[in-house]
Every structure is written in structure tokens, then in C-alpha cells.
Amino acid sequence: MADMREQFTDLIRSLQNQICAAIEAVDGKEKFIEDRWERADGGGGITRVIANGNVFEKGGVNTSTVHGPVTDAIRTQLKVEGDSFFACGISLVIHPQSPMVPTVHANWRYFELYDKEGKVTDCWFGGGADLTPYVLFEQDAKHFHQCFKDSCDQFDAYFYPKYKQQCDNYFVNHHRNGERRGIGGIFYDYLRPNESMTAQALHNFAKAHGEAFIKAYIPIAERTKDLPFNEQQKHWQLIRRGRYVEFNLIHDRGTIFGLKSNGRTESILMSLPQEVRFEYNYQPQGDEELALQEVLLNPKEWV
Amino acid sequence: MADMREQFTDLIRSLQNQICAAIEAVDGKEKFIEDRWERADGGGGITRVIANGNVFEKGGVNTSTVHGPVTDAIRTQLKVEGDSFFACGISLVIHPQSPMVPTVHANWRYFELYDKEGKVTDCWFGGGADLTPYVLFEQDAKHFHQCFKDSCDQFDAYFYPKYKQQCDNYFVNHHRNGERRGIGGIFYDYLRPNESMTAQALHNFAKAHGEAFIKAYIPIAERTKDLPFNEQQKHWQLIRRGRYVEFNLIHDRGTIFGLKSNGRTESILMSLPQEVRFEYNYQPQGDEELALQEVLLNPKEWV
Known about the structure:
2 copies of one chain form a homodimer.
Chain A: H1 2-27, E1 33-38, E2 43-51, E3 56-69, H2 72-78, E4 84-96, E5 103-114, E6 120-132, H3 138-153, H4 159-170, E7 172-173, E8 179-180, E9 184-191, H5 199-224, H6 231-251, H7 253-260, H8 265-268, E10 275-277, H9 286-297
Antiparallel strand pairs in A: 1-2, 2-3, 3-4, 4-5, 5-6, 6-9, 7-8
Helix pairs in contact in A: 1-5, 3-4, 3-5
């Protein structure tokens, strides 16, 4: 399976290029800047960030390919045993300027563990994509979920409902009565190759979702980017971005693991929105805010 | 020692009143609003919040007095054994509008543990105060530290250097190369009564710091509140507030413990500043930002 490392690295680089190009095309003004970095213990990454665009206020599309000894931080946080590891993945978060355009996050990754002789003892795939609207447009929520249902259904009709639910169960602000970060999507982790889904099939599964991502998000951004909005909607977006920050810093396993295991802080925290607002005990005001709140507290079946 | 619960509760309520009155007097426009809340498992609190004032953008001065069974969350997070507990404390964070006025935080608390028969098996005091300037005025840093050195020195000349260092070691963004949240102050925890410091002396120690707080912070706020500032200074304040959010949500034991043990979220997160900015890889610009950065990376002896 040595070549799966290469294959997956190729996949994430290719997705990084395609997704950045698609985002830049929607934005029409700003381009991604690129920072290449190296990890002291082995490997490195390519961080691409866009900021202060016409459509996008702040966004990052990062890839990394890292390897090295299994440290205590890795052992504790990932609950794995092994002598050394390899991990590669793409992680992206795009925060638009307008509250009419939803924030989006996606991530696909591959992990291998080795024993002292360098033999692969374990490997798995993980990933997903989820949408965080500020003003809820049902048609967009349906479209986003439909795209990932389609990419799942190519493999197994059982996958979408399962990974949709896992997504609803993962992006939860537990300290806020179970309020979700957004309206979900799909989320899967620790998918190990087996008879029905080989490593190659799991690679293709990630690839299908990566391609679905562009079909899912870009048309929504295009449709909503020029819609007019008012101050109340902008204010609500800033409040909701505060909840995004809370989830990422308090609950997100990847963020916490990255920060505590000496990951590259700036690449990890590119996920935070640029302008954010925290108010004491803010309560949703008006039908629009209440409608969003309702689906965040009680996830819906969109398709 | 049953009356120490009452005594300490009286102390924090009295400090809450004095501090809120002093903050309102500086602000000159807004008053604190008060929310009283109850805890399902026992006890409750008084949350006071000020927002959108002349001088203060957002601040909270909270007291709570809670008790009940020692839950798994308490056992794990506080690393204590016991059947039931009592805890009371005051916690305050004040975020000014102007970048010339520093943010301030303070906290004093008392904890008791009981066995099955209700006998006190352990008790301790904790607390401290620390200053987070955006534009560094050495005279204010010195004044703030001097006030707490004075309140420490009344008890033991050994305390200030020790608790000053503990403060420098606690408010650290470990994921940012050890950058401190601010220029420190004092911090102490798990102070158990002994022959040289009885419970009464430890109560008086907290009381002395509570009174020192007003002498420490109010004159700084008065002196700096009308100073002119420019856009770059405001921008830097918003960036630094981002670091404040990072510390509180990623590293602060009290915040994480509160959120994970079903504390009152709105009272805990009153500590977050209202308007915040996160930029990718922001680097300090100009002498003023670099001067602050320098003392955040390398804490100074101010007195």
C-alpha cells in the first residue's frame, strides 16, 4: 500500500489546485497567497490563504504531508499505538464577506501507522464537508446535501444517511445546548480498508467527494454573492462566526490536536473567520434568525 | 470552617458591588445589567455585564456560589477526590473600547471538599489579577504590579515574586511560541491553610487583592480613556483580542472546566471581547506593536 501515500498526496494537491482556482474565479478580485512550510519532525505542507476579496473575507485551502515517530501527543489524542506514522490531508475553510453566502469547510485525509520494522500495521481514511449558512436558504441546503448524497450513493446507498448523521453529531457546540455549527453535510473517520471497500475504493470515495465539493459550493456562492443584505443580517453573521470560533477552539479534535502537537499554528487557525463578535446572551431576533436557530438545534433531513 | 463559606461569599459580593460601582463611575454612561441564575445541582450566581459604554465595550463581573456532588468532570479536571464540594468565587474581565486602555481580568475563589459524612476533607484558595494592554505604557504596567506587590507584601515578601512568576507561567498561548496574553500580575492556586497562613489569613489575602484591584486598574483606565488613538492601534487591539480568545478557549482551565462541567455558558463566555479579528499570519508592525510583543514573549520584572 506504499503507493497509496503517493496517490492520496497527488489527490489532495490536485484538489487544492482545482478548489483554489474555483474560489478565485468566484471572487474575481483576490488570489490565494501560498506559504510552504516544513515540519521539524518530518514532512510539511502547502498553505494557501485568500483574504479581503470581493466575495471572500478570509479562506484557506491547505494540504500537508507529514510523517515521523508516534509522539505521546499522537498516542493520547488519536488513541493509536505504533512506532511511526504518515498522514496527509487537505483542509479548507472559506468565510465569505456577505451573510447571504454560507461558510464552508471540507477535509479529506489518509493515515498510516508502522511498527518498528516499518511495516504498515494500520491505516484509515477520514473526511467530510459541511455548510454554515447565516441566512438559511432551503434550496442551498438541499443542493449541498444532494451533491454529497450523490457522491456517496455511487459507492453505497447506506453511506449518506450514516455520514450525514455523523456530521450532525460531530459539529456540535455541546456547551450551547447541542446547537450545531451549521446545517451539516457528511463526516466520516477511521474508515479502514476491507473486502467491500478496498484502500483504492476509499481513495476514490475521497476523490468523489472532493469533486462533489466544487459542484456543491460554487453554485451556492455564485447564486448568493450579489444578494443585498442589511445590517441586522451582517450582525447575525458576526455573532454566528463567534459560534464557529467556539466550536473550532473548544471542540474540534483536529484543531486541538494540531495546536497541542506542535502543528503549524497559522495553518491550523486559518479556519477562524476574520471579523467576529461575541455578545453576552445574544438571542436570535426575527423570523430569519429563529429559522436558522431551529435547524441548528434540530438537524433536518434535507434530501 | 463552615463560616469561611459565608465569609468568602460576603467578600466576593462586596467586591462585586465595589468593582461594578468603580467601573460604572469611569464609564460615565452605561450601567451593569444583572442576571441571577441557579445551578441545577446546587447553588447559583449573580452575573453582571456592561456593554457598549463610553469607556468599556464589554465587561463582566460575576460571582457564583455552587455546591453539590463531586461529578466525574470535577474529579478529572480538578484532580480531586471527595463526595461533595462547595465553591464560590468572583471572576471579572473588562474589555475597554479604546486600544489605549488595557483589558483587565481578576478572580478570587474558595473551594471546600467533603467526605460522605459531610466532613471537610480539603479546602483551598485561589486567585489573581492580570493586565492585557494593547499599547504598552510602562508606567501603567509598573503601577499595576506595584499595587499587587504591596498587597502581597503585607503578608509575606516572598509572595509577590512567586505569584508574579506563576502568573507569567499561566497566561501563555503555548501554541504561539509561549507568547503571554498580557503583561501579567499575580496568580495563585491551591493555597491550603497552614500554620503560617490560616484560612482567615488566606481570606484576608484575597480581600487585600480585591481592594488592590480597584487601586490598580481604575487610575489606569482614568488616565488612558481619553487618549487619542489611530486606526492601526485599533486594528492591533482587535488582533490582540483574538489572542485573548485563543487563550481563554484553548488553554484557560477555568473556562474549559466550566464549559465541560455544564457551567452557565453565558456567564463563562462573558470573558470574550465583543469585536475581534483573526488574520492569517499577522506580524507586529511598527515600534509600538513590536515593543508590546517583546514583553509578551519575554516577561519583565516591572517593580
